[in-house]
From TrEMBL:
Originating organism: Chlorobium luteolum (strain DSM 273 / BCRC 81028 / 2530)
Source superkingdom: Bacteria
Reactions performed catalytically: (S)-malate = fumarate + H2O
InterPro entries attached to this UniProt entry: Fe-S_hydro-lyase_TtdA-typ_cat (IPR004646), Fe-S_hydro-lyase_TtdB-typ_cat (IPR004647), Fe-S_hydroAse_TtdB_cat_sf (IPR036660), Fe_dep_fumarate_hydratase (IPR011167)
Domain Fe-S hydro-lyase tartrate dehydratase alpha-type catalytic: residue ranges: 8-281
Designated name of the protein: Fumarate hydratase class I
Amino acid sequence: MMTNFRNSVLSLITETSANLPSDVRRAIAAAIEREDPDSRAGLSMSAISLNIDMAVDRVAPVCQDTGMPTFFIHAPKGVDQLFMKREIEEAIAEASRTGKLRPNAVDAITGKNSGNNLGCHVPVIHFEPWEKEDIEVRLILKGGGCENKNIQYSLPMEVPGLGRAARDIDGVRKCILHSVWQAQGQGCSPGFIGVGVGGDRTSGYELAKKQLFRRVDDTNPDHDLQGLEESIMASANTFGIGPMGFGGKTTLLGCKIGKSHRVPASFFVSVAYNCWAYRRLGIIVDPADGSVKEWQFRDENEITRMAKGEGMPLTGKEVVLKAPLTEEEVRSLRVGDVVLVSGEMHTGRDAFHHYIMHHDLPEGVDTRGGVLYHCGPVILKNEDGSYAVNAAGPTTSIREEPYQADVIKKLGLRAIIGKGGMGPKTLAGLQEHGAVYLNAIGGAAQYYAACIKKVTGVDLLEEMGVPEAMWHFEVEGFPAIVTMDAHGNSLHSEIENDSKRALEAAG
Ligand SMILES: O=C(O)C[C@H](O)C(=O)O
Ligand code: SF4
């Protein structure tokens, strides 16, 4: 019997969530070398590298969004798949209890959180038979923000910025370049892409996701696709989108392309965008007792420490903000300023923005002059009933664009913290009401958790579940960059326009 199987899967989940693979580490280390340490890109890469080390030390999620756990399993004839499925579900529930995974499964319509990452068709498990004697279990934890940047093209078409894309390899190239451009910083760049050419709409996306199980440093056996991968890497890194979309040399860290036969009428190019927090690992399991025989994507000569220094390379020029903030304070900030936030901070994301349009704030909560953090944390409950933050990086802000300006006005907010930037409606709202948008480093969930000194309370927990509830934090020295100010300036629209020109030039 495979008595050790559940434990093997639990270690796979824990390790995938907390400890990035060797090939990913190497790609990120090379990016750190490329960026000027004193630039916004350099600051982002420092936070990312510190965060990667902290996740290992704390055995806690690299990023708070642990995604939709997706398993790809190869098994020999005769192994009990139903048993494996049940044991995987138990391991998922256990990893959720201990904060290695965020409770991330919510009802599709009502948003009700199941609390343990189990639900309709979740976790996703793909079984495939193979000729070998061992079992291979591979897992990818791909967060929602980068998943939202996945995109599918149907050739022939007009690709924005690049013109007509025909049913040939150059047409495929144009689609892929556009896919990187449209992600901007919202999928926590620098990212990795898996591309599926051909198939149908469903199998095309699956093929794309499977490419993310190739090693970053492998060589495509198909000569044409190998050339295409290299060409995409070279062109995409001229876009200047950079880490977090702040501008910089590194936009794309890996590009892997596979192909499937298609029907004559369809020609799809499907792209799966993965953030820098590229969490995927694999184990080879002994079918006799279910124990781990071998780890995949884990090299002997791995770069074990990513960070160069002890802490963030701060210059002393940072603006210290202590909430509650005054209008004058906020209006004096300009795009590009680095700030360190202290004091009270409230979380609020999708469910909260929807709710607050039609309801008053929970009793006793005062947000005037306040800081709203777009964040869905991983929280553990202590024995004494208090809460501990296990991971707490920013979520993609653009989803709140329809609500944000109204919410700023209604709640009297002075600062919004998130990532990826927001649109023209929010920019106008910041100007009108006197507020700023602060971009935190996406994925740096451990780094930011350490800035949260205390959870002072929570509202709407029962109704909304852990990630969507309104948490109240006491923070200290929380670093972020002003990317949209109260004077109508937005770094995001600047980078989008500049990178559009680079995209056109790559055509
Ligand atoms: O849900 C989250 O915490 C973040 C999400 O992965 C995002 O990138 O927006
Ligand atoms: S927050 Fe960023 S790093 Fe985390 S899952 Fe979302 S896209 Fe990835």
